[in-house]
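Kindly inspect both lines:
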Amino acid sequence: MQRDPEALQAHLDKWRGRPLDYNAMDCARFAADWAGVELKAWHSERSALKAVKAYGARRVADAVDTVLTPRIMAGLARWGDIVALDTYPLDTLGICEGARCIFLDGKGGYTRKPLRECFRAWEVE
């Protein structure tokens, strides 16, 4: 179960210092690695949008629905669950820390946003 603070810190340490790179470092890979799921590969924002469509989805959160279940109401997300922010053109995925959620900042660090700003979540067991 991914509810261990030490496991989350190790995950953050693993991803820290790596700027946005659609070949290897983006929010979908960050969240998928935490949740233990595989994703289709992409190499740019444009190819990421194509990958979303390959899942039969219109947005990132819909694609996540096909690989991560169960989906839960965002307000019910618990520590360690995957969450999504509505950020055009691609949703931003992060990890719930309770009332706040951790997201990549694109520069190799992290930012935290209130859970109430998230519109979707998935339980991670």
